[in-house]
Design goal:
25 strands, signal, iron ion binding, carnitine biosynthesis, seven-stranded mixed β-sheet, binds N-oxalylglycine, secreted, binds zinc ion, 641 residues, disulfide bond, four-stranded antiparallel β-sheet, binds 3-carboxy-N,N,N-trimethylpropan-1-aminium, NE0471 N-terminal domain-like
Amino acid sequence: MASPLFLLIACLVSLRLGGAFFSGPLHPEMSNGTFHHYFVPDGFYEDNDDPEKCQMLFKMTDNRKCTLDEDQDSVIRDDFIIIKRHIEDAARVLEGIGKSISFDLDGEDSYGKYLRRETTQISEAFSNSEKSLLELEVKFKQSQENELKEEHKISDDFLNMIVHTRDVLKETLDISLGLKDKHELLSLIIRTHLTRAFTTSSNYSQIRMLSYLTRWVSRGAIQALKGTSSRPQLVKTPHIGNQTLAAAPLPFAGGSSGVRQARALDQERLLQIDWDDGSCSLYPFTWLRDNCQCPHCTLQSAQARSLLFSNLDVHTGMDQVQLMDNKVSITWPDHHSSEFDPDWLKKRCFSSEARQALQEELFLNEREYWDSSLQIPTGDFQEVLHDDKAALAWLEALRRTGIVYLRGAPAEQGQVARLSQRIGYLRLTFYGHTWQVQDKPMANNVAYTSGELSLHTDYPALHHPPGVQFLHCVRQADQGGESEVVDGFHMAEQLRREIPEAFNILSSLRVDFTDSGADYCDFSVQSKNHIIDVDSEGRVTRINYNNATRDSVLDLPLHQVQPFYSSLKAFVELLSRPENVFTYRMEPGDLVTFDNWRLLHGRKSYQSRGQNLRHLEGAYLDWDEVMSRLRVLRKAVRGDN
Ligand code: OGA
Ligand code: NM2
Ligand code: ZN
Ligand code: ZN
């Protein structure tokens, strides 16, 4: 007859093999000071709000009947399983933390706080595990004394297992303590870093002041230019109530930065540069070595890094730093040397103000919001094609305002393709390189009818919808066909203020979109998009909404369906308020260019008969290509570097 102890061990062994409880992907997680497992049934954890599936989070099934009925033994068995899983969890979390510590610090205070919390929690969890393990050992010894002699060998094995587990736990505890020490050291570095940043903050306010002043001056310049007809790239179209185009100057127009002093802070592995203007910048040794501009480390003809990452010592020291001919010259421990141009360095200063200024210069993310009173920026089609200044003004306004009207294009097909070539290349989709918006029989899209198009963005059925859209009026209808636009970013921000729950729902739930048919070729497109996309800092980055292609498939749990509809209703009502919508009517030869990630556009229904069959030709582009042309034009027009 099998003894109870033998059955206990058999049961434990089968548990170890994973047959007795759920063996799928269990992910350890720490919250509220305890370890949890969560189970991801399929798809994303965040989407798993089905109450039934949620119950799976901590559900464990034991299919194999363990015939033990002795109370104490089953208590020991349960205790053992729990402790074993605590240890496994802790080890996994530790491994994760170890990995993140091995990356260098980014100087964020929050990172230090995170580490502090995690290490404390781990230590607590460990001492709890250790306590229970000791108790378990005592309990087991007691139960062992009650067993028959012939079972001694097997029980010794089991005891050894527990002792072994305890040793592993001890080892892990040591690692945890080691991590705690490391963390202490890291927080020290963070504090040093913050103190240093604080001492230089007075210089940052100078930069802020300077950038404020330049902006103020540039605004004045634009005001002065409004209504001036002497500049060739400016076109007035009172018919539309326009705002004429002018390129705004850059915040930092170059100039040479003088270095007063350069010195290595060896402890922190930072190079400190004191500038002539009294400000100061810090550069990590590793970053400097990584960005050595010499011909060995940089392929000059491509302005690209040829230094291999495998050859970068991410803990490099610095042997010497000197100022030579107003260049910062560095000798590295391996005798390699680098020279840095002060202007190049200053532009790349790591202060948050400098980074912000450079990022704005690179990406122009500052937007000007508008409503129905928009003075639509307007340019001349031919000038944009042939004059760099006019083209630059066009693209800067397209980025800042989100819409630019161009007049004076020939009233014939082919113009959106010409304009795309001014940028680089257009974005091909299933509707073709360019596409003809006309009332078509057996239309493969609601746009190809004479019906009304409610406010929408184009192509949310793609996961990466086109960033920019061109629409050129070849022929207009006799009746109807007026255009409407609304500033989607402005509206999303207004929704966030007025109905935050609706904003949260539209920016967190993903909606299915669908588009199938045949055009350039046959297609069957599906996507899941947030109607309001936000970035990790909560800024609105894209609107994805076309009611015509919103799928009948709605991948939401039942209880979220009605809240979703109510939120969308609130957003659409806000979008459609007369005070928010700018209306215009395109005439043949007019060409509108707009940010399809930001604006929603629509058209009134029109009468589709007679000679004048309405015809718009459209094309898509992506923002990467448009921004590329904008940067190239800036360089050409202003002689930037
Ligand atoms: C479209 C569209 C506008 C118009 O084709 O997607 O928005 O005026 N057309 O026809
Ligand atoms: N086309 C058909 O989202 C959409 O279906 C927009 C517009 C290219 C004019 C498609
Ligand atoms: Zn080099
Ligand atoms: Zn459209």
